[in-house]
Design a protein that fits this description.
The protein has eight helices and 15 strands. It is globular, with a radius of gyration of 21 Å. About 6% of the residues have low confidence.
Length: 301
């Protein structure tokens, strides 16, 4: 009798062309991609978090199954949550990069939540002012946790991520690895020092990797980053759909196809002027619109 060796599993991590896959029995297999799955110079052929079919004898991946979702930065698939981790200080909070990560989540259909770390470095007044600057998250139904290495709110984050597949992303040096070390016991992640000269962190995680949570679920640790690109938004309509706060039932612009940029009698602009909609979010929308219009969309005119 021929032994059937086709198995399904989840990609835990990748090292130099080898994929490490866990089956339902928690066995780990080292495999390579096979045939048409191995497209040259395609980083998303097979990524951490993918569910794959592989041959446990030949140690090759035969098929990458349909994905629930995929993020490009960090490059991971099939996640339930993305924890967006930033610090208030050291390195300083970057609102534009923060909004870019939110935009990525909305574009790739991933539910975000926010962790603001290193609150022990701020005064009470600074913290309250900072919280006010992120008050727009409430209108977007995005949960936020304030933490430090002193473990504030760690138990709440554990409950929030329980039995979920959760990726964590954010700039280098914000303390992401320190937070993950408080959430899981499987692997002690290397924590990096802040480069005082550059005021940002050194990259400590070489690639994304999945870790088990003893309270149920998985964490995907990902490398920090220094820059982000806009996702592949194809037109104005698709961009508008990524800003849910512009779709309140009470919003009624003069023109049905209003882009909320230069049109007269724009209700969105009126709400921003009256501080009823976030100026931070609106300014980010306008900047994103202009960038896409000038650098991408006009190329196809």
């Amino acid at each position: 009798m021929i032994k059937i060796s086709a198995v399904k599993g989840r990609v835990l991590y990748k090292i130099k062309g080898f994929y490490y896959i866990e089956d339902d029995n928690k066995n780990i297999f080292e495999c390579r991609l096979k045939g048409k799955n191995k497209r040259i110079n395609k980083k998303d052929n097979c990524v951490v978090g993918d569910i794959v079919e592989f041959d446990s004898n030949e140690k090759v991946i035969n098929k990458v199954l349909e994905r629930k979702n995929i993020l490009k930065r960090p490059l991971v698939a099939n996640i339930d949550l993305l924890g967006i981790v930033f610090s208030i200080k050291s390195p300083n909070f970057d609102m534009e990069r923060f909004n870019l990560l939110l935009l990525d989540c909305f574009y790739y259909n991933v539910k975000p939540f926010v962790i603001i770390n290193k609150i022990d470095l701020t005064s009470n007044d600074e913290l309250e002012n900072f919280k006010s600057s992120l008050s727009f998250l409430e209108n977007l139904n995005i949960d936020i946790f304030y933490t430090s290495t002193l473990s504030e709110n760690i138990n709440e984050i554990k409950e929030y991520t329980k039995n979920k597949v959760t990726a964590f992303g954010g700039p280098s040096g914000v303390g992401k690895s320190s937070i993950i070390n408080l959430l899981q016991t499987e692997k002690e992640l290397e924590t990096g020092e802040i480069s005082k000269k550059l005021s940002r962190g050194r990259h400590t995680t070489k690639g994304a990797s999945i870790l088990h949570l003893d309270y149920g679920g998985y964490i995907i640790d990902t490398p920090g980053f220094s820059s982000l690109e806009l996702p592949d938004i194809k037109d104005e309509k698709e961009l508008l759909e990524l800003f849910n706060e512009f779709y309140e039932p009470s919003i009624n612009c003069k023109f049905n196809n209003c882009l909320h940029i230069n049109e007269p009698n724009c209700h969105i602009k009126e709400l921003v002027e009256k501080n009823k909609l976030s100026k931070i979010r609106y300014d980010f929308y306008v900047k994103t619109y202009n960038t896409l219009k000038n650098e991408r969309w006009n190329k196809y005119d």
